[in-house]
Amino acid sequence: MHVAVIIATRNRAHLLGPALASVLGQDLRPSAPQVEVLVADNGPDDETRDVVHATSEGARFPVRYLCEPKRGKPFALNAALLATEAEVCVFFDDDQIADKHWLSSLLHGLQRHPEASGVSGRVEIWEADVRGSWQKLFASRFQSYNGPVDCRADWLNGGNAALRRAAILAVGGFDPRFPRGQDTKLLRDLTRAGHIVYYTPAAVIYHRAEADRLTLRGWVAQLRQQAYGDAFLARWAAPGEEGDPVQRWVHARRRCLLKLPYTVLMQGLCGASRDLGWAIQYSTAIRSYRALGPAEPADGSVDGAIGCA
């Protein structure tokens, strides 16, 4: 099996170095599949290229630097998909640290489920970045659901997933219409086409949260960005496919607000922040959905071209 680890990045060289080093430091058996690493730079600058070359010097895996000048993460991811012939593509973000058994756990999940088109893993907080109770409160937003082993995934973590390349290409790759939520859109496309993706919590990555994101302002900004992605995805859906998204969000917001006093009493501020956060996200999604016009249809092709010198 040929495996490509794909890291899309844009002007975050200070985070990319440790992220790439954690991927190159994976604990794999000698009989492990052939692995290569592709770094797709979506905001090309000399510093990012230099970090890639310095970090990968003497690495056990070959590392390739790609440049995708067309702005948008889906274009960078698609460029990497087109630049490799790997059977399995593993996606990793530039603001993460991988557990040393992360890659082997993802590949083991695929081996357990040969019928599946992919597996997605768990996200935890990189505790070294979190200082004080307030930062811990805001950082809880970055943690993922931790469900049972081998359950079917109803969401896809775009920074912690191993997917069969043929399945991704068959559904048109990452949709360039989606500046956010392109991983959720991909999972929906795969599911519609009859593909199965499993959740494997043994594959752990640690999300790095920069200081400006661990503030009230950063917390609200993150909620709004996620809400915009939700709204865009709902606007893309075929009319009536999932009912009226506005009514669904209104009811969900009401449930969050009604149980807020109970959550404060039983779980304290951390639990209350989750319910309040969801209420804010639902409200923002409603406004964003109403403001968005109909999305342009996708043409079904994989859009991404490597074009930087």
Note down, in words, how this protein is organized:
By secondary structure, this protein is an alpha/beta fold. It has 2 domains: 2-213, Alpha-Beta Complex (Spore Coat Polysaccharide Biosynthesis Protein SpsA, Chain A), CATH 3.90.550; 216-291. The protein has helices spanning 13-24, 46-56, 73-83, 102-112, 132-139, 165-170, 182-192, 216-236, 245-258, 260-291, and strands at residues 2-9, 34-41, 63-67, 88-93, 96-98, 118-125, 151-152, 160-164, 197-207. Strands 1, 2, 3, 4, 5, 6, 7, 8 and 9 form a 9-stranded mixed sheet that branches. It starts with a strand and ends in an 18-residue tail after the last helix.
Short description:
By secondary structure, this protein is of the alpha/beta class.
Main attributes?
309 residues; alpha/beta; Spore Coat Polysaccharide Biosynthesis Protein SpsA, Chain A; 9-stranded mixed beta sheet
Radius of gyration over alpha carbons?
Answer: 19 Å
From the N-terminal CA to the C-terminal CA, the straight-line distance is 31 Å
Helix content: 40-55%
Q: What is the global morphology?
A: globular
N-to-C order of helices and strands: EHEHEHEEHEHEEHHEHHH
Q: How many individual helices? A: 10
Q: What is the CATH C-level name of the largest domain? A: Alpha Beta
Average pLDDT reading = 81
The profile of the biggest β sheet is:
9 strands, mixed
SSE blueprint:
Layout: E1 2-9, H1 13-24, E2 34-41, H2 46-56, E3 63-67, H3 73-83, E4 88-93, E5 96-98, H4 102-112, E6 118-125, H5 132-139, E7 151-152, E8 160-164, H6 165-170, H7 182-192, E9 197-207, H8 216-236, H9 245-258, H10 260-291
Parallel strand pairs: 1-2, 1-4, 2-3, 6-9
Antiparallel strand pairs: 4-8, 5-9, 6-8, 7-9
